[in-house]
Amino acid sequence: MAKLPKQVNQFSKQYPKIWHAFNELGERCHEAGPLDEKTRRLIKLALSIGAGLEGATHSAVRNARRTGVTADEINHVALLAVTTLGLPAATRAMTWIGDLQEAE
Question: What are the contacts of 37-43 at 24+ separation with CB within 8 A?
Answer without folding.
Answer: 37/67, 38/67, 38/68, 38/69, 41/67, 41/69, 42/69, 42/73, 42/74, 42/77
